[in-house]
Amino acid sequence: MRFVCEASMKEGYFCHDEMIVWAHDMLDKMPKMVASLRTRFPYLFIDEVQDNSKRQTDVLHRVFIEGDGPVTRQRFGDSNQAIYQFAGQSENKGIDSFPIEEITTDMPDSFRFDQRIADFADPLAVDPQGLRGLRSSAGEGKHVMFLFDEDTIRFVLARYAHHLTEVLSEPELRGGQFTAIGGVHRAGRDDRVPASVGHYWTEYDHEMGSKWLQPKTFVQYLIVGKGIAHATGETQAMVEKVAEGVLHLARLCGATLPTHRRKRNHRWVLELLAEHSEACESYVNLVLALCVNGTDLTRVGWEETWRDVVVQIAAAITDDLVGNARATEIGRFLTWSEAEEPVENVDERKGSDNVFRYSSGSAAVEVRVGSIHSVKGETHTATLVLDTFYRTHHLKALKGWLTGERSGGSAEGGAMQSRLRLHYVAMSRPSDVLCLAIKEDALTSADIGRAIARGWRVGRVTDVGMEWLGNCAS
Questions:
Q1: Are strands 72-75 and 457-461 parallel, antiparallel or unpaired?
Q2: Would 130 be classed as within a structural domain?
Q3: In the predicted model, what is the mean pLDDT of residues 305-315?
Q4: Is residue 191 part of a domain?
């Protein structure tokens, strides 16, 4: 691991946390830098401060506040939206905690949405501020609870999209931003419907590559990674595919590795090569050349250089490559594949951008599907919040807050507070239309009555349309 860090430093590559380490190191060795920085930046404004980690907070406090001559600082943030988790986050209530009650001013006004959406979202704040929606009213009958069962969940996105064509104008449909988001977007071992966003739309892919075929050769892993990187703008996608290819080859060679997907396969490969410095250096060079520096992979380059490098890396992990019983299968995996998209048909990749497309007559709607975390800070014309599962179904657990029976959560446990914050973020995204998707058996008839009284339009999703409940008929 030390070798990898040193090699990375020599190449000029640093992890985010490493920069904080270097910042503290600089301040230790050059304490006069503090005065220089405060002279250069006498006023400090920090936005979204609730998302700072303790490490970030500590270095900012040391540079700008600690000791004599602090700068003038103004921090802006909403603790009700603190949805990111950091190591040591529980220690954030320290010498520079946020907010400082004695000097805090609440800012409950929002120009994003109207009072109706404000009233829906505010109870989910752990510490409600009494949100005031100052945008002009978007009108009644737009905010829907879509009720579904295991047979009709696959129609939810289409019913939501169709609803938008009915309640929004043509200019709004043409220029609007429409989303469907859930707390859990990565499919796991739990299959309790709805467990994740993918239960609503089978084409959804948390890695933005749902319609790419499973690579059959190492070269195809590179090609798929390059395609995803191009679509997302993230080099990491290609790095991860290189790592997946290495791990697949290692398994073919007999390595006993877990088959479930790791969040960061690149880090896993580095861990496996920690005691094999030469192979680790080869792996790092492979990643730098093909993923970072953009070296074109040619057949000659693969067969004369990179194939042997990949073999060396896999051999270090498995110690069982030569004479392996699966030699034929290994050979096929290492053969050259022409550099073309490994898909059946380009049209079949229509869902790979995670955009659900719907048309009805002359009206067309594109709904961006993703996680709640992925849209934090954004404003949407319409947002559909999808129920998902972590320990329990989120919206089922929150139904008291959704129907107006409960408000706030300062007395709740940590898990419920996290759930409240996450869905407070989700429900405060839209400017015009807020919708929820909940499994029908999560609500009693009394719950539905309270939801309708609160201003929700409640309807049952069917295979042919919507069946509106109570006084919700259109």
A1: unpaired
A2: yes
A3: 91
A4: yes
